[in-house]
Write a structure and sequence with these properties.
This protein has 124 residues and is mainly α. The protein has six helices and no strands. The relative contact order is 0.12.
C-alpha cells in the first residue's frame, strides 16, 4: 500500500513539474480531464452522473493518499484538514457545475434558442 501512495506522489510531482501549474490548479484540470476521459470513450453525456462519480472517487483517493503521508501516530493538524477540504472543493466544483448545467440547463451548453424565439422565426 505504501508503494501505491508513493507512486501517486511521484506522479503528482511529475505533473506539477512538467506543466508548471501549481497544485491547486492541477486539481481543477485533472478533475475536468477525468470527467471528459470517462464521458467520451464510454459515450456518456455530461448530464450522466457516472463521470462525476468517477471524479469524486479519484479525488477521494487522492486525498486519502495525501493523508497517508502524515505521521500516523499523531492527530491530524487543522491545517492539513483545511488543505484537504480546499482540495476537495477545488477539484469537484467545475465537474459538478458542468454536470448540473448539462442535466438541468442543456441549452446553455449547446446554444439552442429558446422555444419562443423559434416560434417567432417560423411566423415570419
Amino acid at each position: 500500500m505504501q508503494q501505491f501512495v508513493s507512486d501517486i506522489v511521484i506522479l503528482k510531482d511529475w505533473a506539477v513539474e512538467t506543466t508548471g501549474l501549481d497544485r491547486d490548479a492541477m486539481h481543477i484540470y485533472v478533475a475536468l480531464l477525468i470527467q471528459l476521459v470517462v464521458a467520451l470513450p464510454l459515450r456518456r453525456r455530461m448530464a450522466s452522473f457516472f463521470p462525476v462519480f468517477v471524479v469524486i472517487c479519484a479525488i477521494l483517493l487522492n486525498e486519502w493518499a495525501d493523508l497517508q503521508l502524515l505521521p500516523q501516530d499523531k492527530p491530524f493538524p487543522q491545517a492539513n484538514i483545511d488543505a484537504a477540504v480546499q482540495d476537495l472543493v477545488n477539484s469537484i466544483l467545475l465537474p459538478v457545475l458542468l454536470f448540473l448545467l448539462a442535466r438541468f440547463w442543456p441549452g446553455l451548453l449547446l446554444g439552442r434558442p429558446k422555444p419562443e424565439s423559434v416560434m417567432s422565426v417560423q411566423e415570419e
